[in-house]
Structure formats: C-alpha cells, structure tokens
Design a protein that fits this description.
Length: 383
C-alpha cells in the first residue's frame, strides 16, 4: 500500500474541495439534520454533479463515468462526506445497481439504464430485505411467477432507503420455490410506477423518514426486467453486496464530526478531561482512513477485498457510534437537544447521530456477521 497520493490525485482532491466550498450553502450543510428530506433539492444537487461528469467518477468513460481508479474514487468520496454533501441515493445507483447491470446486463439493458444514472434522470433503490429476511437474505418470500414471457411479482420489501422518491428498484424474488433457497432466486429491475406497486413510509428511531416498505400486488414484470440468468440471482446479489461493503469506504464524515467537536471544545469551557478521549478518537479516525485506503489499494490492484472490507465496515460503523457518544457527553445538557431547538449547539448533530448511527452496525451486514467473516476468512478460524 502506497501512503502517498499522486500529483493527479492531489489535484482531484483540491478541485473537488474547492468546488464544494463554492456550492455548499448553509441550507445544504444543514440538510443531514432536516426533519424531512427535500427530494427536489437532492435531485438538483446530483444533476449539478452530473453536469460536471461527477456522478460516477470510477465508471468507464464509455458509460458516462470518468474512468478514474479506486483511489481517485475514494478521494472524491472523502471530500463529499467531509462537506456533508447531499447523497440523494447515489450509493444504490452508482455503487450497486450500475456496476451489477454492467456485469450481468444485456447490451439493451446497459443502454437503457446506465445513462439515466450518469445524467441523474433516474433514482434507484434496493429491494433485498423483507420483514422476515434480513441477515438471512436467502430466506426471502417475495415471488415472481412466470406468465408467458413475463413474471407476476407478489410480496414486500422493507428498509428501502430513499424509496419514497426512487424511480426504479433492483430486487430479488423467488422464481423456483422447489429449489434450495440459494438457488431459486432471480434478480429483477422494476419500474416503481408499475401498476400494483405501493409504498408505505417508515420513520426511524430519530423520527426521520429516510426509508419505507414496498408492497407488490400482481405486478407484471416484462421480459427485459430479468437481470442475468433466471434462478442465478443469489450469486449476482453477492456481487452487489460485496460492492456495498467495499463502498462503505471512507472516514470523511467521522473526521468532520470530530473536527466540529474539537472546535467546540477549543472555543468553550468544556472539561479538559475529554482531551485524552478526543485524542484517542483522532487516532481512530486515522486508522479508519488507512483501512479505507487499504481497501481502495486492493481494488486498484485488481484484488477483491473480503475480510478487509468487513474490517473497514465494522471499525468505521462502530467508530461513528463512539464519536456520537462522546459528542453527547462533551455537550452536556445541550447534547440532549434535537435539531431545530433554538438552544442547539453544533446543529444538535450528536443527538441525532447518536440515534441514526445505530443502524450502521446493522445495515450492509451486522457487526456480528462482519466479525464472523474476519474470523473465518481473515484469521482462518473454524466456523
């Protein structure tokens, strides 16, 4: 692993940094703490990125990307995270749906779906989890039954992040109920405007509306909705999940939260007893950064991060929780205030993130699953 960025990578970082400084208004900086998401603002921001060709920097140029490598993608992502730039569901589209379509889609599917992502005309969401199928995803019960050349979809998907303003969903459905549970699943692309699709908004532990539950009642899926081979969807989904775990890839937001907290301590009468704890968190942020670059370096070398991606995901998601916990303690009574309070300090970010970091150790594979991967695949321990 090379610990130094090339001149080109440094130039990219400076370019992205300068652009974000110029466009991030106070309203946009406060977006993560707003009570309700503004889909119009999210779409507008991502279209500004699209105009610069920055929606999918690591995608090949022939499909609308910049052809940048994994390190450049990480540099880009770090700056976006540090500035708290709106995401607006770029992750599901750019990190998972697009690459999976590139890998398994037909030429017609690539032509149809990839430009919609890089132009940001279409917002994607993920349809994997179900009320009874989360960590044991292969137990899913949503079905797609053949009807001529089409399929009829019935079931439900939940924890659908950004689902309330998404246009399309990539999803898994059981197409062979007689096959072993991993072998009777297919991967589909669904237009969410299709008849029979309905959505119910869910609110998280912080009373924010970031996800919801979809219901499918005899939804007709045309022939070109199938991605890849019928009944091989589980193996395609593992590709998507590997991309998801590898893309939880930078400590930019953790560094920003710690910088905000350090600035507050310097300017206030906060207890000096927290200095050692804050110094420890600074070391942990540096460790998370190195773990990020380790994963990116492997990708750049053509290797597939496995336990390395799990180590990063585990460490960074739990670090986010430790920073939020420390922020609450440093702020004292002010730490109990939620965003919107006239007495809030630091936008009341730590009260909110203390709650919203809870699912970070669940989504993308629980901490327990990550530890099992590290133990068996990284350390060679028996199952």
């Amino acid at each position: 692993m090379d610990f130094h960025l090339t001149p080109g990578q440094l130039a990219l970082r400076n370019e992205v940094h300068g652009w974000l400084q110029s466009v991030m208004t106070p309203e946009m900086e406060g977006f993560p703490y707003a009570e309700e998401e503004d889909p119009a603002m999210l779409r507008a921001f991502n279209r500004r990125l699209a105009e610069k060709g920055w929606i999918a920097p690591s995608w090949p140029e022939e499909v609308g990307g910049m052809g940048l490598g994994a390190i450049e993608q990480l540099v880009f992502g770090e700056e976006m995270a540090y500035f708290r730039a709106p995401n607006g569901a770029r992750g599901p589209a750019v990190g998972y749906a697009g690459p999976t379509i590139m890998m398994y889609g037909t030429d017609a599917q690539r032509r149809r779906h990839l430009p919609g992502i890089t132009n940001w005309d279409v917002v994607w969401c993920q349809g994997f989890s179900e009320p009874g199928s989360g960590s044991d995803l292969a137990s899913l019960q949503t079905t797609a039954v053949r009807d001529g050349d089409d399929w009829i979809l019935n079931g439900t998907k939940t924890w659908t992040s950004s689902g309330h303003y998404a246009d399309w969903m990539y999803l898994l459905a059981r197409t062979d109920p007689e096959a072993p549970k991993h072998k009777g699943i297919s991967y589909f692309l669904l237009d969410l405007k299709s008849p029979g699709v309905s959505f119910h908004q869910l609110r998280n532990i912080a009373d924010r509306a970031g996800f919801g539950q979809y219901f499918f009642d005899n939804v007709r899926l045309p022939q070109d909705s199938l991605l890849g081979e019928e009944n091989r969807g589980w193996y395609q989904a593992t590709t998507t999940l590997d991309l998801e775990r590898s893309n939880i890839a930078n400590a930019g937001s953790a560094r920003r939260a710690l910088d905000d907290l350090l600035g507050f301590v310097r300017e206030s009468d906060a207890s000096p007893a927290y200095r050692q704890r804050l110094a420890g968190l600074a070391v942990e942020v540096a460790v998370a950064t190195m773990l990020s670059y380790r994963v990116a370096s492997m990708l750049a070398a053509g290797q597939v991060p496995n336990q390395e991606a799990s180590t990063l995901k585990l460490f960074l998601s739990e670090l986010d929780q430790r920073i939020a916990n420390t922020g609450l303690q440093v702020l004292g009574a002010y730490g109990q205030l939620m965003p919107g309070s006239p007495l809030a300090k630091l936008r009341a970010q730590f009260a909110l993130t203390y709650l919203t970091t809870v699912p970070r150790t669940i989504a993308g594979g629980t901490s327990e699953i990550q530890r099992n991967i590290i133990a068996t695949r990284g350390l060679g321990l028996p199952r």
